[in-house]
């Protein structure tokens, strides 16, 4: 069978060999470097596990903390929390930490059975736009080389459920191509219902608020491209002129 790397992506025989070309080249990491990285991640994981235990103990006394990770992690020190997040959340605790930072436990506590109700509604509800057919068409295009989402993979049903449920939860957005990749990423780290509420969080809560990337007209996408173009012009003017000469728009 084709080999699987750490995060579940299927390595084809071509990508596992070194026959030349960027897609076919496998980078060899010395065992000493792998050991160093593993030890460092283990050390960081220990700190995160300790922080999570402290937060869970505090949340047991005050359930309101479930939606405010900053109040419990790193002893309520937001700068230390930011520093540790930027170093990288260890893989072993990533799903739990993302849930806390996104306020998922609080959202689920405030909306009991909401996800189940949306799934039940999706069985009979037919939206004005053919959203369900579009979602079904995109399922096989979402991480097709990942063990969970390859053809008939165990994650495809969960991915469909999350996307259909969100299309009913936020009918103005409905479904936009690209949401599937975010939902699939969350599903690799957390159960289906938690992944749904994580989508709700990143779409609507500060500081992400990415919902404007997906509504009609995609205003945040337009703004992001404009800002990117201005930054290139300011800090890399020669590159900006070169891209203009080559008719290479930033959207490309």
From TrEMBL:
This is Rab-GAP TBC domain-containing protein. SUPFAM superfamilies: Ypt/Rab-GAP domain of gyp1p. It comes from the Eukaryota. PROSITE patterns: TBC_RABGAP. Coiled coil: none annotated. Signal peptide: none annotated. It comes from Tetraparma gracilis. Transmembrane segments: none annotated. Residues 88-252 form the Rab-GAP TBC domain. Pfam families: RabGAP-TBC. InterPro entries: Rab-GAP-TBC_dom (IPR000195), Rab-GAP_TBC_sf (IPR035969), Rab_GAP_TBC_domain (IPR050302).
């Amino acid at each position: 069978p084709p080999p699987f790397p750490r995060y579940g992506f299927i390595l084809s025989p071509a990508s596992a060999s070194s026959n030349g070309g960027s897609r076919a080249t496998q980078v060899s990491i010395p065992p000493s470097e792998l050991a160093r990285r593993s030890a460092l991640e283990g050390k960081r994981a220990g700190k995160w596990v300790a922080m999570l235990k402290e937060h869970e103990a505090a949340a047991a006394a005050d359930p309101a903390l479930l939606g405010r990770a900053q109040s419990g992690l790193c002893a309520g020190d937001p700068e230390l929390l930011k520093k540790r997040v930027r170093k990288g959340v260890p893989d072993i605790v990533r799903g739990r930490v993302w849930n806390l930072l996104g306020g998922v436990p609080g959202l689920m506590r405030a909306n009991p059975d909401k996800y189940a109700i949306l799934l039940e509604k999706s069985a009979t509800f037919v939206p004005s736009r053919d959203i369900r057919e579009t979602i079904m068409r995109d399922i096989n295009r979402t991480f097709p080389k990942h063990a969970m989402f390859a053809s008939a993979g165990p994650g495809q049903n969960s991915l469909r459920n999350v996307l259909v449920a969100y299309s009913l939860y936020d009918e103005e957005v409905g479904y936009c191509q690209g949401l599937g990749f975010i939902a699939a990423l969350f599903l690799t780290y957390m159960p289906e219902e938690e992944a749904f509420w994580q989508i709700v969080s990143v779409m609507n809560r500060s500081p992400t608020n990415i919902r404007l990337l997906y509504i009609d007209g995609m205003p945040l996408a337009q703004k992001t491209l404009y800002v990117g173009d201005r930054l290139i012009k300011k800090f890399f003017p020669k590159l900006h002129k070169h891209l203009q000469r080559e008719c290479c728009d930033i959207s490309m």
